[in-house]
Design brief:
Arc Repressor Mutant, subunit A; Beta-Lactamase; 2 domains; six-stranded antiparallel β-sheet; 10 helices; globular
């Protein structure tokens, strides 16, 4: 068995701790959590910071994960082609909806979803998140869409004995209720969350089958009032973008359950009383994926 290098192990422990604290941890808090002297941690974090593995925010806010980890995660997960292919579709979806759009993939624990691609809304008040951030799958549109891609049997095993944290009064914390919600999502072809993780923030998401056995979720997220007011407008655009990404990845005709490219998928919009067809000619442009946003950021 290979020898464990203590300094490397401590660096990994620090990264794991920061992954559980997206808003950052101070040096003192990290030292208490890991039971490692502050002087030792300061040297480790300084090295990680110079390699963009972590970012120093301020003495008060501390450190958080850096952009290099998001890049490495995409590569390690085999998602680089997906992100690069999806990026122009995200750009177009932001132009068409005016809201922030994210590409999410399941974490090692499917009850968490990781954002690997994004284009932010030009609005001053918008939903914002960093690449590589984890989100609770049971309380987010992208996460629910990814969970809904699993079988009922797999979901029961995943939820057995698991506590579902409550973030707002609308968060579903009962496993049986969540399973019923996921069945509805699976049946209608998209997920909708309203104030379930953050009061005032809502989103819609649809599933991307981009390779055999591989899935991602494309989501549109924004202030609840704007999302609900334009729900009928946004859903066909979201589904069009998903079909375009699948076609560009060569999965439109081969993915189980995916409609042939160019076919019209009908999505029933809750409360709309009728189906809303998506149309869809995807853009053909492709470019390397980076995260972009305009105007001042306001995290939701």
């Amino acid at each position: 068995m290979a020898r464990i290098v203590p300094s490397v192990a401590r660096a990994i422990d620090a990264l794991d701790a920061l992954a559980d604290a997206p808003d950052g941890l101070t040096l003192a808090a990290l030292s208490r959590r890991l039971r490692v002297p502050k002087s030792t941690l300061h040297a480790i974090l300084g090295t990680l910071s110079r390699r963009s593995m972590v970012e120093f925010l301020s003495d008060r806010a501390g450190y958080r994960l850096g952009p290099k980890l998001a890049e490495l995660g995409v590569t390690a997960g085999g998602q680089r082609q997906l992100v690069e292919t999806a990026y122009p579709f995200l750009e177009r979806l932001v132009r068409d909806t005016g809201e922030s759009c994210f590409l999410g993939v399941p974490a090692a624990d499917p009850m968490e979803t990781i954002y690997v691609g994004k284009v932010e809304s030009p609005h001053a008040i918008r939903y914002s998140a960093d690449l590589g951030e984890r989100r609770p799958s049971h309380a987010t549109a992208a996460g629910k869409m990814l969970l809904a891609s699993l079988s009922d049997g797999a979901l029961r095993a995943l939820l057995r004995g698991r506590a579902l944290p409550r973030f707002t009064p609308r968060t579903i914390t009962d496993p049986a209720a969540l399973l019923r919600d996921l069945r509805r999502i699976r049946a209608r072809g998209f997920a909708l969350t309203v104030d379930e993780r953050i009061v005032g923030a809502s989103g819609i998401a649809a599933l991307i089958r981009y390779a055999p056995g591989r899935v991602a979720a494309l989501s549109v997220i924004g202030p609840t009032g704007r999302i609900r007011a334009r729900l009928r407008h946004h859903i066909p655009l979201l589904l069009r973008a998903v079909r375009g990404i699948e076609a560009a990845m060569g999965q439109a005709s081969s993915a189980p359950g995916a409609p042939p490219h160019g076919s019209r998928r009908r999505a029933t919009i809750p409360g709309a009383g009728r189906a809303c067809p998506g149309d869809g000619t995807p853009p053909t442009q492709a470019r390397a994926a980076t995260s972009r946003g305009a105007g001042p950021r306001r995290r939701a």
